[in-house]
């Protein structure tokens, strides 16, 4: 009798373990994959946006998608969802508060002139006389005739003078590249990072000079993704190849070109010709060509904190949805629910599947454009406020605080 009881106990115990193992190996319990990535700033959970769709609904007319979103969701609901961002009340360390109040009493000069001495890309149309806060006027120029006694010299590609004597202009050095480095001879340093003296983001209009801004309301439904890159970096190419091999796309640059050569965008979209009297340049038709696609792939040259470049902002401005790979804190710089952060997907296959589903759901796709239609900018307000557009006044304010030429030489 005792042996029988022991056998019964052992059998019962074994059956219990078997049931437990069965329970954990079936689909009743699912644990997050070790490869899954979850972000508190993520504006969507994978496929959640598309969960209400009963069947795919391919579309090409963006206005019809907007109308459908308006009737099913609307700005009121979108504002409620993102109400904590309204009024730009969010506090983040990635952006300087360029629009914040300043103490006018801190300014020691009522006029500042900045002479740009060395540059590669600083656009000529920044040359201007600006009316800034606290009655400060700011002359930004590349002309030594107009700024014959400048208060500050700006160097973007060349090293400032090794020494500054009393009465000399302040030396300003700017480096907006990923591995930003001080020259070691500047009095003030400008970069894309909030920790430096003056921040300049890649957002704003001055990075988009001389573009054809004509945008298409008709989106390609057969070819989903626009990509253009002519600097074929191995890591970036490898990433792009993995994703684009899973999606119908057009690649217009030198890297992985599949449209028959460079500058083919104008043969695809002749309405994007800016001036028929001049030889076309790739930047002339950039925004117009992008606007024909539902998605634009944007991959930074270098992945580092706060390095969010024109690659992303061009796509946003063109009315496409960016698929972004870059700065880990990108959500500090963009509007809510405006981009697809590729790093938040566990695989390229999952990302490609999401993009294909989104392309066939007009309401879910229109949600990615709601921020601009409903005026929910979030941190993007600060991003634009700290852009190249406002740099002249912000630099002049900083120079005025130091008292320009009258600042003590170190």
From TrEMBL:
It comes from the Eukaryota. One of its GO terms (molecular function) is alpha-(1->3)-fucosyltransferase activity. One of its GO terms (cellular component) is Golgi cisterna membrane. Its EC number is 2.4.1.-. It is found in: Golgi apparatus, Golgi stack membrane. The chain crosses the membrane at residues 7-29. It is a single-pass type II membrane protein. GO terms for biological process: Lewis a epitope biosynthetic process. Pfam families: Glyco_transf_10 (PF00852). The keyword Lyase does not apply. Coiled coil: none annotated. Its main location: Golgi. It is an enzyme of class 2 (transferase). Pathway: Protein modification; protein glycosylation. Residues 220-404 form the Fucosyltransferase C-terminal domain. Keywords: Glycosyltransferase, Golgi apparatus, Membrane, Transferase, Transmembrane, Transmembrane helix. Belongs to the glycosyltransferase 10 family. This is Fucosyltransferase. The lineage of its organism: Eukaryota, Viridiplantae, Streptophyta, Embryophyta, Tracheophyta. The gene is LOC105175757.
